[in-house]
Amino acid sequence: MAGTTANLSNDPVYGDMGNEGIVIQKVVDTVPGGRTLDVTGFTPSFIPQGHIVIEETATGILKPMPISGTAYAALPSGHTYKYIVMAGIPTAKPFAGLLRIGTVNWKAMKYDATSILSAVKTAIPSIYFTKD
Question: Does a structural domain hold residue 1?
Fold first, then answer.
């Protein structure tokens, strides 16, 4: 994924941990080693556990799903839903552990996924979305 970079300094960064620890309910498989996300244009300082990750289909670059207020925005053109962030990370250090098979409590996610959930389930059938 050429062109994706991140700051490696150890500046302290904190974020809203919210429902960290209860969103991901079961981990069956992950992306080995995780990936660095391209956070260009993503304004929150923290990417929470359970955040949807999208892939730019032309380049393979992974990004956090855009948000609008308290909900996920529309999927950008030329992108597909790909993974779920396993643990909250600061945007300044976007090194993400990524869930590819498992169970996610979508009602505990920080951003409301109601409007996109059906499309996410279709795009990532290896993740079971529950609402405990």
Answer: no
